[in-house]
Amino acid sequence: MASSARYDQLVRLMLVGDQTVGKTCLLCQYANHEFHDHHVTTLGVDFRVRLIEVEGKTIKMQIWDTAGQERFLAITKQYYTRAQGCLLVFDICSRSSFESLAKWLLYVKMYAQKDTAVIIIGNKTDLEERRQVATETAQQFADENGILYYETSAKDLKSLEKPFYELCRQVVEATNKSLNSEDNGRVILEQENNTSNQDPPPPAKSKCC
Ligand SMILES: Nc1nc2c(ncn2[C@@H]2O[C@H](COP(=O)(O)OP(=O)(O)OP(=O)(O)O)[C@@H](O)[C@H]2O)c(=O)[nH]1
Ligand SMILES: [Mg+2]
């Protein structure tokens, strides 16, 4: 579907994680169905768009890809504030990239809005023989932080559908909830205004007769 097509809601997501964990490849595969073997360091930030259906609504996902290199933090941290959802990515073949998750989670807490949805992705499952982080270890970290955990390969589009969909669904659900609570707040306010007036206001005179 073209990115200029009509949509009901815009959802801004962000990919963060150490250098070379596969953030750019995940996004290229998810948005354009392409896989690149070579690593080109992301300089600062980049974004792609994909449309999906969530609960009967067409959602335009604007997905921001950030540099894993710490020297770009001054640039990337500005993007956390606008992100409604964050995908924290590590490489299952790199213990150190998993250990960095605590740092990336801290950045989300420091720079993003407090209700930002988060999901953890363990990438490169096609390299199972080089795995350094057991699924259970990553799952335990995710559970301790109340976050969902998925394993993916940027070579396999099917493995990406669930985590992106789930994160987007969480954002849509949170938006609906906050819209509902704003509406409820309005109803309560109107009720309070009405009950504070003991006598109901006189009916307005009809103009037609
Ligand atoms: N086998 C395999 N290789 C992958 C996968 N994902 C990424 N790669 C490779 O890992 C390397 C780094 O991938 P990138 O997507 O550029 O990594 P990145 O996280 O964007 O890195 P920075 O932009 O520097 O932060 C590249 O050589 C990719 O081809 C995967 O799922 N499987
Ligand atoms: Mg990159």
UniProtKB/TrEMBL annotation:
One of its GO terms (molecular function) is GTPase activity. It holds the Pfam family Ras. Residues 190-209 are annotated as: Disordered. The keyword DNA damage does not apply. It comes from the Eukaryota. It is found in: Endomembrane system. InterPro entries: P-loop_NTPase, Small_GTP-bd, Small_GTPase, Small_GTPase_Rab. Residues 199-209 have a biased composition (Pro residues). The keyword Nucleotide-binding applies. Keywords: GTP-binding, Lipoprotein, Membrane, Nucleotide-binding, Prenylation. One of its GO terms (cellular component) is endomembrane system. Its main location: membrane. SMART domains: RAB, RAN, RAS, RHO. Belongs to the small GTPase superfamily. Rab family. This is Ras-related protein Rab-15. It comes from Elysia crispata (lettuce slug).
